[in-house]
UniProtKB/TrEMBL annotation:
Pfam families: DAO (PF01266). Coiled coil: none annotated. InterPro entries: FAD-dep_OxRdtase, FAD/NAD-bd_sf. Residues 22-248 form the FAD dependent oxidoreductase domain. This is FAD-dependent oxidoreductase.
Length: 424
């Protein structure tokens, strides 16, 4: 689908009766798109601003698509993060299907193995008790299976495999134990395409591309959005503004005098994509735990995702807005990150070494990860092991949304609409 491009002269801002609610959503990523679609379904008109030339091409496109059920957040002993992920996971598919016709079986990965690495921050016993708690809480949140995980599965499972099984899946030199789980990823590009079609064809949604929001300011009881398109600064007033710009979130919040909840950081992480059709047996989907390790996801016909954190986490920033990492790396530098990550993954997952593919099939994209905390994941005290202080912060009719994880997008999008209607 060709990108929609508006020149300033062709702007057609929603000009309904000024007494009515006029809503601006900043950032057409996963959250902005889903929130716009939910508001549209509730009868609202929305102006959706995106600085890039295409919607949903940033973190919500480059990510691994894991619909987390809390397993990875075992270091958060309060269980708040796992609980938050489970809430997102229970609602993920049901809410997404309110807006787009997605078929779970067309986009889910193979189920994840959790590979306990030698040097893991937690041992297998500690991990097992956390995983079993996640499975139990899932049962409660899903009403005993009434709400199916990804629309397909009644229950959640994590089973410690006998050590004799390690060899067939991973290299025992690096692997202490393996859990077989029923956690899955969904292919983010498939969802991005469906959401892009939906927001582009919805008459209630005005999508303004190449429109970078520079600031939001209070004007009486309204909010003025100041944005730039084709070098021209434009201002427009709204009754309600939702900031869902992720990499731009803190910078725009700051123009409203809003500071983050604590120290923060932006990390640029590569989510290399291998675009060749795969069979389930070709490659196991794996998450290596617990610490600065990596993931492989087998998306069957839709290829694979591969990341090795120590190589692929290339950028770090504690500024309000991180550098424009997406445009900073040459194709050669990107391919080098993929190659070095792949070498590390092959050592741990021998099946990866059997894959045959041309280099043109590799798409080494990356994305920003915004999180509270500025200590790396190899430290047990790192705040990156938590992700529960996320979601919507409302300041009158200005709403700032730290999505936290892809997993939470559909759930938070509905919550944003509730908040604008004063329901929540
Ligand atoms: C490599 C990688 C792997 C990940 N894996 C997972 C995973 O497996 N599971 C999971 O749950 N989460 C994962 N995440 C996190 C997840 O991708 C994000 O939490 C989520 O996609 C954020 O969605 P969003 O809509 O808030 O942000 P985005 O999708 O980044 O959308 C924000 C939009 O705002 C736009 N924007 C920014 N500034 C401005 C501005 N000033 N004006 C206008 N527009 C602006 C951007 O261009 C962008 O389109 C991963 C992240 C990365 C990078």
């Amino acid at each position: 689908m060709p990108p929609i491009n508006f020149s300033p002269s062709s702007f057609s801002i929603n000009t309904s009766d000024l007494n009515q609610q006029r809503i601006a959503i900043l950032g057409a990523g996963g959250l902005g798109a889903c929130a716009a679609l939910e508001l549209s379904q509730r009868g609202y008109k929305v102006d959706l601003f995106e600085e890039h030339s295409e919607p949903i091409k940033k973190a919500s496109y480059a990510n691994e698509g894991k619909v987390h059920v809390g397993f990875i957040y075992a270091m958060d002993r309060s269980f708040h993060t796992a609980h938050q992920m489970l809430v997102g996971a229970v609602h993920f598919m049901e809410y997404l299907q309110r807006w787009v016709d997605v078929k779970p079986e067309e986009m889910i990965s193979t189920p994840f193995y959790y590979l306990v690495q030698k040097g893991s921050l937690l041992n297998s016993q500690e991990l097992n008790s956390h995983y079993q708690r996640c499975c139990q809480v899932y049962k409660e949140l899903s009403g005993g299976g009434k709400k199916k995980y990804l629309g397909l599965f009644d229950s959640l499972e994590a089973r410690l495999l006998h050590k004799s099984r390690i060899d067939g899946i991973a290299n025992p030199e690096f692997t202490e134990d393996i859990f077989e789980t029923t956690e899955y990823s969904v292919e983010p590009r498939y969802i991005a395409e469906k959401l892009t079609q939906a927001i582009s064809s919805d008459p209630n949604i005005n999508l303004f591309l190449d429109s970078k929001v520079e600031a939001v300011a209070k004007v009486g009881d309204r909010l003025k959005v100041i944005f730039r398109n084709a070098g021209i600064q434009i201002e427009e007033e709204y009754t309600d503004v939702v900031n869902s710009t992720w990499n731009g979130l803190l910078e725009i919040d700051r123009t409203m005098g809003i500071e983050p909840l604590g120290t923060w950081s932006h990390r640029y992480k590569f989510g290399n994509k291998l675009l060749i059709p795969l069979k389930e047996a070709d490659l196991p989907s794996c998450t290596m735990v617990l610490g600065p390790f990596g993931d492989i996801v087998n998306f069957r016909e839709r290829g694979a995702f591969m990341s090795w954190y120590p190589v692929g986490r290339t950028g770090w920033s504690e500024d309000y807005r991180p550098p424009e990492w997406d445009s900073m790396y040459s194709p050669e530098e990107r391919m080098d990150v993929f190659q070095r990550s792949f070498e590390e993954l092959k050592k741990r997952i021998p099946a990866a070494g059997n894959l045959k593919f041309p280099l043109e099939a590799v798409d080494p994209v990356g994305g920003d990860i915004l999180a509270l905390g500025n200590t790396e994941v190899d430290q047990s005290k790192s705040r990156f092991h938590e992700r529960f202080e996320v979601g919507i912060r409302s300041f009158g009719n200005y709403h700032s949304v730290d999505t936290g994880k892809y997993t939470l997008i559909p759930y938070l999008a509905v919550k944003v609409a509730d908040r604008l209607e004063g329901i929540d």
